[in-house]
Amino acid sequence: MNKNYKKGSILVLSIVMLLIMTTMGAGLYYTVSKTAFNTDIDASKNETIYTAESCISEAVTWLEQQATITGIAPCKNYSKNQICKSWNHQMNKYHASGESNIQYSKLSNKRCNVQIINLGTVAAGGSTGAGFDVGQSDSYAGNATRTKYLYKIRSSGTGRKGTNGVVEIVASTIF
Predict the structure, then answer these.
(1) What residue spans define the domains of the chain?
(2) N or C, where is the chain less crowded by C-beta within 10 Å?
(3) Residues 45-58: pLDDT tens digits?
């Protein structure tokens, strides 16, 4: 055999190996960048759910304050399934002590939209249960002496890259 033939085969084998390694590197880069993008989207979705939950807490606090201040059920004069209160704001008013500026700026870009909807009323029997406390009674019958006002609170949070999260709860007050 010719020695020159053997020398050329090493060169061809090296070029093939280089091509394979380059293809594997490009594939790995694509996979890693796609995974990083999806991880960022998932993190943003979680943040929008947290934003929506924060706004739900604000809405429940608003119901409690209105009931305490006015002494009557909030949204009492609104018809069933009617929005009685809504607001839309940016989350930049929240700044926890010890929170980094990076975390603050990340969360301050989130927005939430809250709606409180009057779901109507039901009779609440017995004399137990007042305000926002869950009452228990050993009697199943009796005159309904109180009225339970039901509310659907719907909150949606929006974040980076078009992500959003929605949370809904049902709250009640007893008067």
Answers:
(1) 3-174
(2) N
(3) 888 888 888 889 88
